[in-house]
Amino acid sequence: MYYLTAEAAFDAAHFLSGYEGKCSNIHGHRWRVILKIKSQDLQEQGQERGMVVDFGEVKSALKKEADFFDHTFIYEKDSLKPVTIAALTDENFVMRMVDYRPTAENFAKHFFDRFAEHGFEVDEVTVYETPNNCATYRA
User: Fold this and answer.
1) Catalytic: 71?
2) Is 23 a catalytic site residue?
3) Residue tagged active-site, from 27, 48, 71, 117
4) Cys staple from 105: which of 45, 62, 110, 135, with CB 3.0 to 4.6 Å?
5) Which of the residues 7, 23, 105, 124 is marked catalytic?
6) What is the pLDDT of residue 31?
């Protein structure tokens, strides 16, 4: 089995609705996303001969996904009042609503699914929310 690993990062704010503790307040992280893809075989022909996939393709997909969240405020659907969303939008803040609680665990699953949609055979995705704390998702 062959494995390729690529990494990207983004800076974003979030909060955990319904959490009792510091994370209930808006705060930011430098999120690191580590993508690990796998393949039994290497390409046999063409420009990608001898490769699982061109690293450029992996890096491009990873950058696109990370850039979507970069310098945004990520919030869970139905966790903010409509008036709050309207006020932040009126101030031109870039916000990203997600259908899940924005935890490292849920981000790992989110990115796993997104990279699978790109056609990669994903082995695992690890998301660090701090330099010392991460979550990994494997199917």
Assistant:
1) yes
2) yes
3) 71
4) 135
5) 23
6) 98
